[in-house]
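Model it.
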Amino acid sequence: MALSLEIRSGFVYMVESKSKSKSGPISISKTLFFEFPESWIDNQGVREIDEFGSLLAQHLTKNNIREKDCILCINNASIIYRELIIPKIDDKKTPFIVRSEMMNALNLTPDYIMDFIVLEEIQREEDATQLRVLAVAMLESAIESYLQAFKKAKCNVVAIDSATNAIIKLANESKVFTDDDPVIIVDVGNSYLRLYLFENGMYVLSRNARLVSYSEGDKESVIPIVEDNINKMIQFSYTRSKKAVKKIVLMGVDEILPDIQKVLFDSLFVPCDIIQMPSTFISTVGYQTKYVNAFGALIRK
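Modeled.
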């Protein structure tokens, strides 16, 4: 059994799962979400540790979730991203290079914890091989605040993942990419928009935008903002690669996605799909894309 929780700005999305083997399918037995005041969490971590821990414990009890081992997917201002190009050297030395580059590029202090994933190897003409990596950083005190809050709820955090890494893993599992043409994955949140650009099946970059808080009655306010930002990403992608975007893939607030899908197809003439659950998962509770990041965090690579 494992419990995966995505911590967004003002929302927690939770997935309870189990797997009979490391290579077998992951069975999703329960999903739920709850809202909390956005001021409780910021770039410094969990500001209201007792309140957040108590609210989490309340929802775990209310929904009869007894699993204590948790995987956290951080999708808010607590985490910093940076793409880096570094020389390919001994694997043991790479983390030190990443840390040094992150501190220099972002003027970070030594009390940040950093990690990275390798996106691709780049072969230069002079035969020097470089690595394109996606690096992340969080304040050590911010990480500790999450651990304390979950300890309040009697939960044991076994891993912390980033939303971007979760999306990269899930996109590959979902067979989103069928060729080398650019694909845009769009995460429509309750108060934000995140766009991920992939080329040749590899992550290129992401961009964020604020949205008005979504409710069933204000689709007309949200959809034009989504459309405008996707159009800008399409133009950027073409300027970069001279290739047209092959497909747009939607996820996030399920209730509004069909409306966005129709508008995008009618206005941008680009095929637009709602992301499907990959065969890695078996769900007995009904599939909703709002839990996609929590699903991706369950894929351990």
